[in-house]
Amino acid sequence: MTTILPLGLLDKAISSRVWILMKDDREFEGTLRGFDDFFNMVLENVIELDNGKKSKLESILLNGTQICLIVPGGEIR
Amino acid sequence: MSHEKRTSADFFKQVFGRTVTVKLHNRTEYIGVLAALDGNMNIVLEQCEEYLESKLINKYGQILLRGNNVLYISAKFNQTKQQDVEI
What we know:
- The complex is a heterodimer of chains A (about 80) and B (about 90).
- In chain A, about 10% of the residues lie in helices and about 55% in strands.
- With about 80 residues, chain A is mostly beta strands.
- Chain B has one domain (about 10-85): SH3 type barrels (Roll), CATH 2.30.30.
- Chain B has a 5-stranded antiparallel β-sheet, with no helix packed on it.
- The longest helix of chain B is centred in the first third of the chain and has 8 residues, at about 10-15.
- The radius of gyration of chain B is 13 Å and the shape is globular.
- The interface of A and B includes residues 11, 35, 56, 60 and 66 of A.
- Chain A: It is found in: Nucleus.
- Chain A: Plays a role in U6 snRNP assembly and function. Binds to the 3' end of U6 snRNA.
């Protein structure tokens, strides 16, 4: 059985939509363009969900320190 | 790697001198021209406006934000002023 490392899974998700949950109940959904070892992420066509309020962002660098969960192919519900 | 991967270093190069929105963990937003950025996400913004809950509360000629507070740096590449859009 091949081993998949966490950052390897993230690499597979590049160019597809990802759903990101932060520690404080914020959510982001966007197209993953890149990331680094610290889980800082470059996302495009982003939807931000904060306290029930959605907003759109064209291109962001998201700080990895507060990221809790990443769902490849997932979306904000 | 077969994909074209844009890392944070590439994002840095693209956003220098542009108007960006920096949102902090405490929901405060700063819109200004990006003058400096380092690997710790420490940021220098110029001609900066400070917004809390979409209300303008302050303006600064130059501001240094400590990177540990930064949630995201957002850029628009058609250079219009960034406004939150309700979906």
